[in-house]
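Hi L.,

As promised, Flagellar biosynthetic protein FliR:
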Amino acid sequence: MDLSALLTGQFLGHALVFARLGGIIMYMPALGETVIPVRHRLALAILMTLAFYPVLPVGPARLEQPGMLLAAFGIELTLGVWIGLTARILLTGLEFAGAQIGMISGLSNAFAPDMGSFQGSTLISTGLMLGAVAVIFATDLHHLMISAMVESYRIFPQGQILAGDLAQQIVTAVGQSFYIGLSVAAPFFVMGVLVNLGMGLAARMMPTLPVFFVAAPLLIAGGLLMLGVAAPMMLREFAERLADWLRAMVF
């Protein structure tokens, strides 16, 4: 037995698994947040590679040509990034909703450290993102994420990729994310219309009323009150959508 060839095959096999799992952890909600140090995420990807490799339907890689090796790494990394990015797109629905709520409630200038995929996140967006991460761990959705990582090898065997299906699923995820953002922010749109309509009527009846100075506190107070009432439902809606997508990969 050629020990060198055996060790090389085992190393390349683990490296291919690491490429997919690392791509998933790079973007997966809760596991790939930017607040988690890169070294910790890298260590998690390595540990999961070592733990899952014996149970995955993969074997030692024997790729003698550099072109084949690069192509195999590219396919695995693409699949991992696609899985993590699709879940991240679903999470950005809450970020979109938070941006809309902040604009309606007059808190769009209350910036906070970025927790999502774009700069300039509002305070409400960051709060919703933190709540979503807490809900993921509280409801054990991270266990479902890990199961989806393992089952991804059943849906997408190693070395095979269907670019058309991946693109279609990304478009579907974007539509779902937009739907989540609009549906959870809908009550705030109604609240904003009613408050502004009331202030407009009051300004017509009392021209000397400083509408801006009266309306701004009302919008902020109403937005925060409604956020406190609606936040659990908003987070549950996101968790259910994410769980449905993960179950589609597991089962």
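The CA atoms of residues 187 and 226 lie 8 Å apart.

Thanks again for sending the construct details.

K.
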